[in-house]
Amino acid sequence: MELVCGEGAVSMPTGRGSRAKVIVRVDFDALLRGRPIEGEVCEIAGYGPVPVSVVEEILSRGDTFLAAVITKGKGICGVAHFGRHPTAFQRSALEWLYPTCAVEGCNAPVQEWDHRVDWSQSYITVFDWLDGHCCHHHDKKTLEGWALVEGVGKRPMVPPDDPRHPGNVKEKERPPPEAA
After folding, report:
1. How many whole angstroms separate alpha carbon 179 and alpha carbon 71?
2. Which of 15, 46, 70, 139 would you label with 54, given CA atoms 20 to 30 Å apart?
3. What's 108's DSSP letter?
């Protein structure tokens, strides 16, 4: 850890003052699983392979800016960062693809980008895991527990007691996460 982000680590401007910036390359499936298996990668640029627990420790320190390049084999399938909000690059792409609220039938402009996997559980902002909401639908989700049914693009938003609500969908019925 000290070699990667401790004393003597390179400080780079990150938009919030100067902190060490650490770039992690991790295979998509290993990221979802929480650990790499044979043939998968979890490594720190300029350092080499590390267990996922090292990445988690870097996150817990709070004094290091952590960025991730997510791969499938040798191809890059997404770039994520471990801040709560989308990067400028992610936001521009999201605004281009999804200019209006993700709720079926709502054409209001997007005011909030929301994590499908709650950020307080994942501590990662992945482009393909974000949905845009207008203020009304963001409040319904945040204050009343409503949620979009699983999937991507425009789809219904349902109350907590609806069987299609993601909190009510059994794990075996849940489709696998889509690759970036």
Report:
1. 10
2. 15
3. P
